[in-house]
Amino acid sequence: MQKLAIRGGAPLHGEVRISGAKNAALPIMCASLLSADSLHLTNLPDLHDVGTMRKLLQQMGVAAATAPGEITFSGDRIERWEAPYDMVKTMRAAILVLGPLLARFGDARVSLPGGCAIGSRPVDLHIKGLQAMGAEITIEHGYIHARAKRLQGARIFFDLVSVTGTENLMMAAALADGVTVLENAAREPEVVDLANCLRAMGAHIVGDGSDTITITGVEKLHGASHRIMPDRIESGTFLVAAAATGGSITLTDTRADLLDTVLEKLAEAGAQITVAGDTIHLAMNRRPQAVNVRTAPHPAFPTDMQAQFMALNAIAEGSAMVVETIFENRFMHVQELRRLGASIEVEGNTAVVRGVERLEGATVMATDLRASASLVIAGLVAQGETIIDRIYHLDRGYEHLETKLSRLGADIRRLK
Fold first, then answer.
1. Which residues of the chain are modeled with pLDDT < 70?
2. Closest Cα partner for 382 from 10, 4, 12, 8?
3. Catalytic residue (choose from 87, 116, 118, 258)
4. Which position among 265, 286, 289, 372 has the lowest Cβ density within 10 Å, counted as fewest Cβ atoms?
5. Quick one: which of 255, 202, 198, 203 has its CA closest to 226?
6. Whole-angstrom distance, CA of residue 146 vs CA of residue 105
7. Is the dihedral of CA 330, 29, 108, 181 positive or negative?
8. What is the pLDDT of residue 179?
């Protein structure tokens, strides 16, 4: 099992290019199931989850011609309408093949998903939405089996805001008969990116980016080319790492408009931030100030940045409260940060972080994707060497993280 070894104490300096967004790439890859024509995607990150999704689509019969950072999918010879457990168990996003398969072929069999153990992410929102569109759905032997001659437009209200639920039903509705209205829909930029790709394929979608999305179904979709949006969570992670280490970095190929709440919190912590076009520059010339964080659905503070700010607050001046409202098990990194000397108390969905002047290196274990990033940030500021175990979590969502950090001056290496 691979590990990361980090010797902390070096401020990050330099320039780093931001990769395409994993959380946009995965649903957009699934959109290739909606058409027999080719879908050409660029700015795809080199990530484990992207590779897993490509293999899953290929198992179904989707052809995939690959080049560095891009793939052309061709869905004209799909013969298998199933996502098996061995492909789905490590990646919850595989549930996103359900809507497209059902909409185009009238049949889909998808294993109940696995992925990070950060809390309940129920698939019942997907199932109820498809049932409202006329699908017959049974759950048997750990699989969701859905059938429908042709889906019908419907008004669907989400009891809880669900990003993957919104994406799955938006793709299904693109080929449904009639108009579908998704209310209390997710407003995340990744949902908008999927809608942009679907429109390029001929879908009729309005309202994405708001809590009400209207989709008018069409008979079929055609091929298209689409560039995946930059990864706002990778952007935020590098910015927090630079702020925590007292560094000065410039991000390229990113978008500041995707990071409003994160940039506001970094400025509150004392960082100097300059935005120009697709670049963001951050400089931190002092010890960070502790900042309160409360996660909530977009456009509020993203849950995927909570762990990184926990690491920043651990060495900040003062105390801060971190409130997690999205996932109930997303404080698993707290125990590992304590091993490095952090002072954190947790009660329910609230953590109180009292900043200490220094952390000390130790061996820690990554428990999920974003927890891994928080431990890397903590390792970059800790005295001595930090060993991070189980970094396969990290490889699911960050493209060549240790290589990028090394170019910024970090003493970090991968151990096999």
1. 113-122
2. 8
3. 116
4. 286
5. 198
6. 11
7. positive
8. 98
